[in-house]
Amino acid sequence: MAIRPVFSCFLDNLLLKVQQRAQMLAQRNLTILGCSLVAHTLLLGPLWHTIRVLAVPQSHLGKVRSTIIQFLARKSLPVVIFQTCQRSRKESGLAILDPGTQHAALQLRWLQSLLLPSSDPLYYDIFISDILRHCLRLFSVSPPHILPLLLPNMRSSTIKSFGCFNSLFKTMNKIDYKIDWQAFDIRMVSELPLTQVYP
């Protein structure tokens, strides 16, 4: 059996569980604030662990988001747009987390270990980070593992096709950061096109 259909089947089952829980909980007589609390804890809570360790496609996260919108819309008349639901409670929102944004935030854990190595890392952090670094070096345009993370044009099509790296790269693209070229050694900078260093 191919890996992709198994993964798709797993994600479909996960979505089905969220939808079934939402249907069951929608029968309760909850206020809109109660619905937002239930959405956070019982519907989205179990999902966060899965999307932290897996490269979940945006299409799947969109379906989860749609399920949450439908769950919240049952208790709100007139129907409130999702951006309003995402606002904090101080701004008259429901503080609902967007699955796509949360997925990117959860990927920061892996990016942090690749970009800023800890002085006292946990064993599994060392193992996973070493594997990620090795793959970045092996399948990228340049040997230093950090360059493909920081510079989109240094990412080979091979490394972009790997699911976990695709998620990491999308997260890096969302982050607004400045590169401190003084932190790089001359060997790394010499491998870059001049337009990268002096745009």
Mean pLDDT over all positions: 81
Largest sheet: none
Our estimate of the beta-strand percent is under 5%
Number of helices: 11
- The global form is elongated
**N-to-C CA distance:** 48 Å
Rg, alpha carbons: 20 Å
Number of domains: 2
What order do the helices and strands follow?
HHHHHHHHHHH
What class, by secondary structure content?
Answer: mainly alpha
Q: In percent, how helical is the residue content?
A: 55-70%
> What is the β-strand count?
0
Poorly predicted ranges: none
Short descriptors:
199 residues; mainly alpha; elongated
Question: Would you write up a description of this structure?
Answer:
The chain folds into two domains: 3-97; 106-179, no CATH class. Helix content is 66%, strand content 0%. The protein is built from eleven helices and no strands. It is elongated and about 65 Å long.
